[in-house]
């Protein structure tokens, strides 16, 4: 079995466990993970009739990756300005709010998702919980945004850290996967500072993901990038990885 197929099937198991009461939705998700309408339906159906809000975490939650994110923010810290952090394809994950809540350095967290349903749910939940930041100058916002069009929201070289927890995996598993995923990667490199990084959390094996990242990140004459990987750990028999991509303007 190829690494990509293993990754695809593991993604199905994660979704299947969450969607055991929403089986009619599973097939649509597997086939159309890159479609706005699919995610609008997902967040509408999985939130309706619930007495209390519950975050949906693709793969795992903040505690599993905080040791990858927080030290990196510390090394990027600037005394004169907040670090701009983007949780790309945030859905209803608690990742962005957790960074806002726990980061000792000042951060401006933008939680971005293509689904306005997810954005509204997170806005309402965050306001209801009245989450307080560790740094009094930190800010958080939730915005509707297609991650293939990051440059419509962010100017070039203005973002310090982009976190991608499963978004690229969802795109790669869709029908036009590699084309859209490559576009998203180039958009990330365009809006990141030269001192910034993209962190991709994925269950795809490094033998496959590293080759794709190293190839897709190159833009001859414009941009190149360093790519590294660390193992996050094993959960429910599945191995997860953190891929770090750091842009460099081409000489």
TrEMBL record:
Gene3D superfamilies on file: Vaccinia Virus protein VP39
Record-linked InterPro entries: Lys/N-term_MeTrsfase_sf, Methyltranfer_dom, SAM-dependent_MTases_sf
Keyword Methyltransferase annotated: yes
Superkingdom of the source species: Eukaryota
GO biological process, one term: methylation
Keywords: Methyltransferase, Mitochondrion, S-adenosyl-L-methionine, Transferase, Transit peptide
Record domain Methyltransferase: where: 80-199
Pfam families for the chain: Methyltransf_31
Record's keyword annotation contains Methyltransferase: yes
Cellular compartments annotated: Mitochondrion
Coiled-coil segments on the chain, per record: none
SUPFAM superfamilies tied to this protein: S-adenosyl-L-methionine-dependent methyltransferases
Gene Ontology molecular-function annotations: methyltransferase activity
Entry GO terms, CC: mitochondrion
Reaction(s) catalysed (UniProt annotation): N(6),N(6)-dimethyl-L-lysyl-[citrate synthase] + S-adenosyl-L-methionine = N(6),N(6),N(6)-trimethyl-L-lysyl-[citrate synthase] + S-adenosyl-L-homocysteine + H(+); N(6)-methyl-L-lysyl-[citrate synthase] + S-adenosyl-L-methionine = N(6),N(6)-dimethyl-L-lysyl-[citrate synthase] + S-adenosyl-L-homocysteine + H(+); L-lysyl-[citrate synthase] + S-adenosyl-L-methionine = N(6)-methyl-L-lysyl-[citrate synthase] + S-adenosyl-L-homocysteine + H(+)
UniProt function note: Protein-lysine methyltransferase that selectively trimethylates citrate synthase (CS) in mitochondria. Seems to conduct trimethylation in a highly distributive manner rather than in a processive manner, and thus introduces a single methyl group per binding event.
Similarity remark: Belongs to the methyltransferase superfamily.
Protein name, per record: Citrate synthase-lysine N-methyltransferase CSKMT, mitochondrial
Annotated organism of origin: Neolamprologus brichardi
Lineage: Eukaryota, Metazoa, Chordata, Craniata, Vertebrata
């Amino acid at each position: 079995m190829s690494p990509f197929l293993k990754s695809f099937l593991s993604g199905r198991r994660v979704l299947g466990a969450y969607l055991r009461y929403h089986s009619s939705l599973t097939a649509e998700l597997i086939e159309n993970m890159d479609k706005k309408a699919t995610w609008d339906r997902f967040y509408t159906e999985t939130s309706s009739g619930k007495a209390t809000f519950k975050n949906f975490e693709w793969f795992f939650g903040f505690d599993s990756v905080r040791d990858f994110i927080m030290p990196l923010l510390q090394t990027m810290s600037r005394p004169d300005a907040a670090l701009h952090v983007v949780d790309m394809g945030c859905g209803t994950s608690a990742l962005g709010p957790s960074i806002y809540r726990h980061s000792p350095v000042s951060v401006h967290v933008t939680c971005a998702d293509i689904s306005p349903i997810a954005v509204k749910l997170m806005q309402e939940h965050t306001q209801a919980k009245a989450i307080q930041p560790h740094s009094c100058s930190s800010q958080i916002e939730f915005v509707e945004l297609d991650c293939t069009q990051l440059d419509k929201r962010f100017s070039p070289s203005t973002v310090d850290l982009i976190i991608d927890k499963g978004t690229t995996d969802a795109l790669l598993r869709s029908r036009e996967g590699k084309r859209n995923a490559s576009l998203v990667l180039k958009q990330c490199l365009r809006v990141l500072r030269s001192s910034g990084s993209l962190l991709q959390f994925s269950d795809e094996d490094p033998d496959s993901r590293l080759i794709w990242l190293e190839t897709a990140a190159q833009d001859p004459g414009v941009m190149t990038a360093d790519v590294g990987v660390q193992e996050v750990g094993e959960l429910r028999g599945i191995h997860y990885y953190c891929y770090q991509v750091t842009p460099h303007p081409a000489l």
